[in-house]
Description:
Layout: E1 2-6, E2 12-16, E3 28-36, H1 39-46, E4 62-69, E5 81-84, H2 94-97, E6 128-131, H3 134-137, E7 138-140, H4 147-150, H5 156-166, E8 175-179, H6 183-192, E9 199-204, H7 207-213, E10 220-223, H8 229-236, E11 242-247, H9 252-261, E12 262-270, H10 282-285, E13 291-294, H11 302-310, E14 320-325, H12 329-337, H13 339-342, E15 346-350
Parallel strand pairs: 8-9, 8-11, 9-10, 11-12, 12-13, 14-15
Antiparallel strand pairs: 1-2, 3-4, 3-6, 3-15, 4-5, 5-7
The structure holds nicotinamide-adenine-dinucleotide and zinc ion (ZN) (2 copies).
Amino acid sequence: MKALVYHGPGRKSWDEVPDPKILAPTDAIVRIESTTICGTDLHILKGDLPAVTEGRILGHEGVGVITEIGDAVTELSPGDRVIISCVSSCGKCDFCVAGLASHCRAEEGAPGIGWILGHLIDGTQAEYARIPFAETSLHRLPDGLSPETAVLLSDILPTGHEIGVKYGGVKAGDVVAVVGAGPVGLAAIMTSQLYGPSKVIAIDLDANRVELARGFGATHAVVSSAADWRDQVMALTDGLGVDVAIEAVGIPQTWDMVLDIVRPGGHVANVGVHGAPVAFPLDELWIQNLTITTGLVNANTARMLTKLVAERRIDPSGFVSHRFALADIESAYDTFGRAAETKALKVVLNA
Ligand SMILES: NC(=O)c1ccc[n+]([C@@H]2O[C@H](COP(=O)([O-])OP(=O)(O)OC[C@H]3O[C@@H](n4cnc5c(N)ncnc54)[C@H](O)[C@@H]3O)[C@@H](O)[C@H]2O)c1
Ligand SMILES: [Zn+2]
Ligand SMILES: [Zn+2]
């Protein structure tokens, strides 16, 4: 088969590689119909994730059709169309049972790390993929949902929802601010609607992205290069700050921004993957009664979100900005890598 293979920092190619095989009785093989590229794949290509070794097939998002199952798989069958979760969950270890599949302790990839696809084992940017723990890591696709819409349920919708909205404790009437209107921030904006916020403020340096955020449910757009960006946010609250501030960028500057706009008693939910330490001025903030959360997606709300998408209660089709044939994945990487210029959000590859 063909697959997108990582050859060390800055190098990747669409190579002929051996077809994946069933290695454990709980595995399934999926023929990929749609896959996509995540910001994390760009981090890997920059060399930011040394655990990804040369020869690794990248990708942790996908939708496809099961072609083969291991002997222990009874709930899924060849021919089933499925969404592949970005987090593989054995469903049995203490962390999986507690709803923390991001820390799954099964002996696949590395015990304690649930994100293994396209990271510690071969991933989904390929014609076929081996999916471990198929019954708990694949979700059957409801009728009427297209593979390219469903592929958004592998990673970005659960991430924005779980680590942004749920960890942030968004509730009816809240004023929510999301710093970073990339795919993950927009997913938080979209899924916050499920809880009835009174205002949702999209904040980004990119004026195009904050305007785009209105289509995903933002009620207000603030361009943070403006000197008075914070005053604009305060003017939208009662001057005390927002109830929930979600960080969806991953740099010290945006961490400082969320601390700067949260009200006493509010929640700060960090979603961004940070590459450098940030400051936390506890001497000033101890008195603010804040709740601070952070973490890796568990993807344990993917099945619930799938129902909502299937029932058109949320419509994530607007995330798909570009479409490519799977074999043209190198051009897709180029488009996604220049997102500010190409206005790419999610670049979908269809087989
Ligand atoms: N916690 C998790 O489980 C998890 C899962 C997936 C992704 N992530 C992380 O979420 C973050 C967002 O992902 P994404 O794919 O949407 O990224 P992205 O790079 O596409 O979007 C980031 C956005 O932040 C904006 N931005 C950059 N600097 C800014 C600044 N100083 N002020 C305001 N806005 C600024 C950019 O214009 C862009 O729109 C990344 O750090 C990613 O690694 C976390
Ligand atoms: Zn991802
Ligand atoms: Zn587990």
